[in-house]
Write a structure and sequence with these properties.
Helices cover about 90% and strands about 0% of the residues. The chain is built from 2 helices and no strands. The chain has one domain. The chain has about 40 residues and is an all-alpha fold.
Length: about 40
């Protein structure tokens, strides 16, 4: 239990280390992909 919690904590810290710009780029990529999928329907 403790080990699992520690692993999740490490993953959370890694996510926090991603810069805001990188997070925005990831979100924009997903939005663009969704828009492309809608156009193909």
């Amino acid at each position: 239990m403790t080990a699992l919690f520690h692993q999740q904590g490490i993953e959370f810290m890694k996510w926090q280390n991603i810069t805001l710009i990188e997070k925005e780029n990831i979100l924009m990529t997903k939005v663009e992909q969704a828009a492309t999928d809608l156009l193909l329907i």
